[in-house]
Amino acid sequence: MAGPLEGIKVVDLTIALSGPFCIGILSDQGASVVKVEPPGIGDIGRWVGVAFGGVSAMAQMANRGKRSIALNLQSDEGRAILIDLARDADVFAQNFRPGVVERLGVGYEDIRAVNPEIIYLSISGFGASGPYASKSAYDPVVQAYAGLASAQAGSDAQPQLIRHTAADKITSLTASQAVTAALYARDARAAGGQHLEVSMLESVVQFVWADAAGNEVLLDADGSQPSSFSRDQKLWKTKDGWIIAAPTGDKDVEGICKGVGVDGWDDDKVRTMLARRANPEAFKELLRRVLAKVETLSSAEALAGMEREGAPCGAVLAPADLPDDPQVQALGMLEDSEHPAAGPMRQPRPAPRFGTTPAQTGGPAPTLGQQTDEILAEIGRGDQVAALREAGVVA
To answer: What is the mean pLDDT of the segment spanning 153-162?
Structure first.
């Protein structure tokens, strides 16, 4: 059975991670994606992080299953080819700074003129207007500006970056959902094509405020509690490593305490959630005793005790630990394959499990311009390939 987006055609001008990962999600779900890259180095994401055989791991994860055409958009003929690609596309995506695509002649109005039903996605750093619209917006800049780094500050009040490209990926998820919603509105409600504008700033602010801006959401709050209810969460040190547990509900607190052999959980000051809110210092003291006891146990001992009591807890794993983990194996989360340039690969399968229209792990990410000739042939320019290449329009 085909994926849920089978038949959807996407023209992908995006680079780095926020756009390519967004469109990569659509590709895994069955969309046919043409990745348009400049000749030379192509998408800069090809050169970020761990790479082998000229393929970076990030580029593979974000671009698997796509086809690549190397196209010089600085030339009139290159822009004409891009317009041809957009004529029968369903989605057109770009993540250049505001104003760039308009100057190139491939902005929303340009594409809508040849394809009124297009869903045109523009991803930006700080939005399309305002004093920072043209500001450079790499991931750590947005993490800091949108409040994600501040939300990572514990009781020591020191902001911390999340040490991966969280702002990019949050934006990718936000944008992919917006695209599918716009496709639904177009196809099921006859709403027509439209321009989607998704900024990294707005995506991350929405993400942060869901649980880490309590005093900013509830304006009459007295400020006695931190805005982020996760502010003081931390990993738990054991005799031989690290684990985590989550003492949130009443049964959770009881199970954790029983699991590691600490009494006092049934004291009236900490037995219920309302009591713990009213007596935060008493609850902190209980947790201090729990943490002290955990430090005398091995990770296996602490986890076994808490799991026996049904408490929410878990080991601290690194990506390298996952292939041997029994739950990961049971779910078939990781799939092995071979990339013609990079060699053997291991990747997570698409996270959503569709009952009747399954998503599939896309094939090897294309090398730069790998499908240039066949894509040109599909838009009726197969007899022009040699001349276009000689003129520097394609590569």
So the answer is: 83
Using alpha carbons, select from 72, 77, 84, 82 the residue that is nearest to residue 41: 72
Question: Which pTM does this prediction carry?
Answer: 0.95
As a whole number of angstroms, the distance between CA 173 and CA 24 comes to 10
The secondary structure of residue 394, as a DSSP letter, is B
The single-letter code of the amino acid at 301 is E
Q: What is the pLDDT of residue 157?
A: 77
Query: Which one of 12, 139, 168, 252 is the catalytic residue?
Result: 168
Q: Which residues are 120's β-sheet partners?
A: 92, 195
What is the dotted CATH code of the domain comprising 236-315?
3.30.1540
Q: Please say if 168 is a catalytic residue.
A: yes
Average of per-residue pLDDT across 288-315: 97
- Which CATH number is associated with domain 9-208+330-390? 3.40.50.10540
Do β-strands 9-12 and 91-94 pair in parallel, antiparallel, or remain unpaired? parallel
For 240, other C-beta atoms within 10 Å of its C-beta total 11
Residue 26 predicted with pLDDT over 90: yes
Domain boundaries, the chain: 9-208+330-390, 236-315
User: How many helices, marked H, and strands, marked E, lie in the chain?
Assistant: 17, 13
